[in-house]
Amino acid sequence: MNKINNVLNRLDSPVLTKQKIIDMEDMSFFTHALIFDDLLIVTQKETNCFVLKSSEGLIVIDAIWPSVKAYEAIVGAIKDVGWNPDLLYKLILTHGHVDHTGCGKWLVNNHNVKTYMSRIDDIYWREYPTKPDRPETWKNYNIDVYLNDKDVILCGDKKIYVYSTPGHTPGCLSYIFPVKDNDIPHMAAIFGGATPPRTKPDIQTYMDSLDYFIKEADKKNVDVALSNHTAIDNGLLRIAYSKVRYSYMPNIYIVGYEGFKKYSQVFKTLSNNMISDF
After folding, report:
1. First to last CA, the chain
2. Structural domain contains residue 5
3. Residues of the domain holding 91
4. Residue 56 in domain
5. Digit-coded pLDDT (tens) for 221-269
6. I want to staple 13 with a disulfide (CB 3.0 to 4.6 A). Which of 124, 138, 259, 269 is the partner?
7. pLDDT (0 to 100) of residue 267
8. Cα(124)–Cα(115) distance, rounded to whole angstroms?
9. Measured between alpha carbons, how far is 237 from 253 in angstroms, rounded to an integer?
10. Where does the Metallo-beta-lactamase domain lie (predicted)?
């Protein structure tokens, strides 16, 4: 159950409805914003992807949905912020659900991007598709590089730090990487599994992964909280603000480590809510 935690009537977790699951497939709406000097967010109603600019090229993190419209939205956003989609060269996936493996097929076929994921979730993606009755959502491209806990992906002047955070899926991964705002460096983190799994043992694994990732974020001086789903972080509102932010206004994604830790508690709240429903 969602609780109101103060006099301002702020919920302590998002309301996750069946309609939100349906809306993940709605390709009629996209928006985007350059939220850091070198980080672009592209989203439809519910699911985000990120494009990180490095000295070697552009890296896509997650890929929205297996639809050419999602691919076109990503490429269109890249062009809109003045970057060159010909520089796309890596696709890094958090996990093997269809709303994250997404439109990777077009990125592979049109840009020859190198793909990254855990071996466990590559198998999971193939053997346990999110939509088993719909072949258009099944695994449709190969993974080039299998990632493991504490790997580092070298991307020119950027390093993406990899953490194994199982629970949401068996091989879910989370990432920490540098970004800049007005040329000032920051460290961004994205926890790969936005919602807890469906069984108590898996929920415990999920919460253990969250604790591990929060500790690793502290070591890396994380001060930027990112989400791959808009329901978790008031995502559409954060993007709308970022699109029109004045130069003297704060970057809404920069929250400090304590802010990141506080934000991350939503995943525990969702887990505890689910456990209480058993």
Report:
1. 12
2. no
3. 25-276
4. yes
5. 999 999 999 999 999 999 999 999 999 999 999 999 999 999 999 999 9
6. 269
7. 96
8. 16
9. 11
10. 46-229
CA distance linking residue 35 with residue 225, whole number of Å = 12
Residue 262 lies in a domain: yes
In whole angstroms, give the CA distance from residue 114 to residue 50.
16
The answer to whether the beta carbons of residues 44 and 26 sit under 8 Å apart is yes
| Three-class secondary structure of residue 164 per DSSP | strand
DSSP three-state, residue 191: coil
Q: What is the pTM of this model?
A: 0.95
CATH of the domain at 190: 3.60.15.10
Q: What are phi and psi of 87, to 5 degrees?
A: -90, 0
Give the CB-side neighbour count of residue 3, counting CA atoms within 13 A. 7
Looking at the DSSP bridge assignments, the partners of residue 118 are none
Per residue in 93-122, pLDDT tens? 999 999 999 999 999 999 999 999 999 999
Q: How many CB atoms neighbour CB 39 within 10 A?
A: 24
Please report, for residues 88, 115, 123, 149, the alpha-carbon distance to residue 119 in angstroms, rounded to integers and kept in the order given.
23, 12, 6, 12
With b meaning 16 or more CB within 10 Å and e meaning fewer, what string describes 133-148? eeeebebbbebeeebe
Q: Which two tokens stand for residue 128?
A: 């346990």
Instruction: Mention every residue, 6+ apart, whose C-beta is less than 8 A from residue 52.
Output: 38, 39, 40, 58, 59, 61, 155, 158, 160, 177, 179
1 domain-assigned: no
Could you give the CA distance from residue 239 to residue 229 in angstroms, rounded to a whole number? 12
Contact in structure between 168 and 271 (CB atoms under 8 Å): no
Question: Closest Cα partner for 90 from 184, 168, 177, 209?
Answer: 177
